[in-house]
Amino acid sequence: MGGDGDGRAFVMRAVAVAPGCERAYDEAEWRGAIVSVTRGEIELECLGGSRHRLRSGDVLWLAGLPLRVLRNRGRDPALLVTVSRR
Predict the structure, then answer these.
(1) Are 76 and 39 in contact (CB under 8 A)?
(2) pLDDT (0 to 100) of residue 2
(3) What is the C-alpha separation between 74 and 72, in angstroms, rounded?
(4) Are 18 and 63 in contact (CB under 8 A)?
(5) Residue 34: is it exposed, middle or buried by C-beta count within 10 angstroms (0-12/13-18/19+)?
(6) Which of 7, 17, 22, 25 could cysteine-pair with 67, CB 3.0–4.6 Å?
(7) How far apart are CA 66 and CA 62, in angstroms?
């Protein structure tokens, strides 16, 4: 099923954002992936300035959105886990 012959059809990736830090939004990084906030909270800042907070347990699609940055305003590290096709 997987492209490399190991039988895996999906790939998981973990993306950590340290407390008080932000990560610039790059649409290509999230293309084709379902994203789950597995720990902490993430704030999404849109190009227009609006902000949306996501908490542990939230699931989303980040590709093709008008975002500027992903930010962790919390005191604990935030962890996003992505699942995408191989």
Answers:
(1) yes
(2) 47
(3) 5
(4) no
(5) middle
(6) 25
(7) 9
* Residue 18 C-beta-side C-alpha neighbours within 13 Å: 1
Q: What is the pLDDT of residue 86?
A: 80
- How far is residue 65's CA from residue 54's CA, in Å, rounded to a whole number? 15
Cα–Cα dist 78/9, whole Å: 26
Residue 6 predicted with pLDDT over 70 = no
Note whether 84 and 10 are within 8 A (CB): yes
CA 78/CA 38 separation, integer angstroms: 8
Read off the pLDDT of residues 31-84 as tens digits, 9 standing for 90 and up.
Answer: 999 999 999 999 999 999 999 999 999 999 999 999 999 999 999 999 999 999
What's the residue count for the chain?
86
